[in-house]
Amino acid sequence: MSRGRNLPKSTKKQLRALWLQVHKWIGLLLAVLIIPISVTGSALVWHDWLDAKLDPQRHVIIAPAGLAPSAYAATVAAQLAPDQLLTSLRFSPEGEPVLAVAQKAARGPGRPERTNFWLDPRDARLIDRAPANAGVVRVLHGLHGSMMIPGGWGRPIVGWVGIFMLVSCLTGLWLWWPLRGGFRSGFRWKRRNTANANLHYMTGFWILIPLAMLSFTGAWISFPKVFSQFESGSTRMSGGPRGGGGPSQPMAETRISADAALAAATPLATGPLLSIGWPTDRQPEWSIRFENAGPPSEVKVADASPASVELEPIRPETLARKIRRWHDGTDMGPVWQIVIFLGGIIPALLSVTGIIIWWRARASRRRARPTAVALSP
User: Fold this and answer.
1) Which of the two ends of the chain, N or C, has the fewest CB atoms closer than 10 A to its terminal CB?
2) What are the structural domain ranges in the chain?
3) Exposure pattern of 106-140 as b/e (b: 16+ CB <10 Å)?
4) Would the keyword Membrane be found if you checked this record's keyword annotation (predicted)?
């Protein structure tokens, strides 16, 4: 990047003044959003660890599931409200509690209300229950993804924050570039006369690439319809519900049992059982997932007849899923996760140091005004 090396000096100064204003006002106006979004994003890098620390009874290693699916379903059925239906059972090969998910009959196009039940894998005894959106970790997800703003406005707002943060990264690089000297002079600690300003310059530069990546991928996640055109038809997510709008509804009564569906799918198993999904009004088939060397393998069993069994081909990872993994660090290894963690903490630091720089500059201008007036003839 030559940073306009061949531009006239006056043009360089004008551009620098413009980018300084853009960079400054993005930081000042959006700090109240950037700080919570960034800090919650850092915390969610360690989502599973945090969840296990806050609710250890849901993650304790007990034993692999040893009962038929109907036994776990029966325990949950006794706990359900009249308008709730069981949607899935999730199993842990490591021996954690069985997770059952129930869904309340949806009213309207919004996200259905779900409840989680944790069951002892040995005897199907109820260990814990909670609304799917309850708990500290879910609150962190809500703050990070939508700032918990109702009415469907939250997610687009967070997406625009990501776009403005990307612009802030680009303008910040321009402003970081040394006015005098070579590229290496930009790494000097004492470029400014305060530790706060030097901290802003240095941390901003070193986190630039990860922060730009997080900003871009965050915008992608917030506007999936806009960015889905960049995916090829073969890699777009095609496993969504069939039919019109609104969430699908689990069937109140199925023609075959979960035990029969599992028995039909077992000959095609590629590893330990991971989950059983109940048939819905749009997909009248059981979805049985097994552990596999890569992504889980999925077996579909028609609810009409257990003889109708089909092993779903393992689809390649979609670009949308890859973007999300880049953003949240899932299966990306500890180094990448640490980088993402810092990419969330440091923007909050940059917001604070940037506000301090602006405030001190403002105070300095105020102090200079009386002097200028006194010196004028």
Assistant:
1) C
2) 27-48+151-221+333-375, 63-121+247-317
3) eeeeeebbebbbbbbbeebebeeeeeeeebebeeb
4) yes
